[in-house]
Structures are given as C-alpha cells and as structure tokens.
Design goal:
Helix content is 15%, strand content 24%. It is of the alpha+beta class. Strands 1-7-3-4-5-6 form a six-stranded antiparallel β-sheet. α2 (28-36) packs across α3 (57-67). The chain starts with 5 loop residues before the first helix and ends in a 15-residue tail after the last strand.
Amino acid sequence: MTGDPGWLRLARAELGQSEIGGPSQHNDVIVGYWRRGGIARRDGTAWEPGNDETPWCAAFMGAILSEAGFTPTHSALARSYENWGEAVLTGEGAYRWASIPLGAIVVLNRPGAGTRFGHVAFAIAAAERSVKLLGGNQNDAVSEDWFPKTRIVAVRWPAGQPAGEYLLWSAAPARASRIRTR
C-alpha cells in the first residue's frame, strides 16, 4: 500500500511464501530468510537450518529489516526483538496498545512456552482487543492474521525513523484467531 513504510512493502512482497510439506522438500525462499537475515549462532558464525520446518518468524523479520537497511538482531528467537529499535508506548492499562504504528514490529508471547519463545511480525491493522499482523511462519506461511493484544509483550519501531500512520481500532473478528506460530 502507498502509506506503508519501506520495510512493510518488502514484507508484503513475500506474502504467500509457504512451507512445502514433508521432510525432504523445502521452500528455498524460506530457507534463504536465515541467510538474508544474518541469523547467527552465539559464537557469531552463520546458522541456517537448511529446512522450512524450523520456526522461522525471526529469520523472516531479520531478512526484511536487513533488506530495508536496518541491522536485525541476528537471532533465531522472536523475543530477541523485545529490545530492538525504539519502544512504542501508546497508552496505559487497558489502553496500553490502543494505537500502534502501521509497520511496527510486534513481539508476542507464546502461551505456555515461558519467556524465551514467542512470535514476531509487522502490525497492519488494529481493533479493540486484537492486532492484525503480517509475518513469517503464521500457519507455515508468510501471511496476515489477527492476534489477541493480550499476547503483546513489546511494540518496537526502527530507531530514528519517523512514525507515519497509526492503526486505531477498526473492524475485526470478535475473537482473534488461534493460529499456529511455532
């Protein structure tokens, strides 16, 4: 869309990339997100799992941010983006996430998985109780879907970049979907 930040335009161009079922075939574009995002081991050496089954939302985020000219976290963990860039604070209490900038990086928790694991994606719409995200590894594809705002642990923005359009509450499903984000 015309008002999208550059990184969100890059992410939208990847919509529809999906995993190939089975242990012997893999989508080379998804496998390439690891390289494009500079995902590294703790010792700094490159790490590519060589398949499209390993959780890859952070690899997708890293690839998009890198191609947009930003330095990603270089981590395979979605929650590594909790402190990336600048914090977006839009309200307090029940209105903590009342508005979120279009294209903001949203970090979600993964219920029952502790504080290490989660999901990361870009904000593209908002409603009173949910946020629509464009991300990798959402139902095994680069796709758009609604998530409950109660799962948000951080909303981040590229440091030094001016925020454009803010997403205010809009029409959304009564209940955010419970899609799989490994």
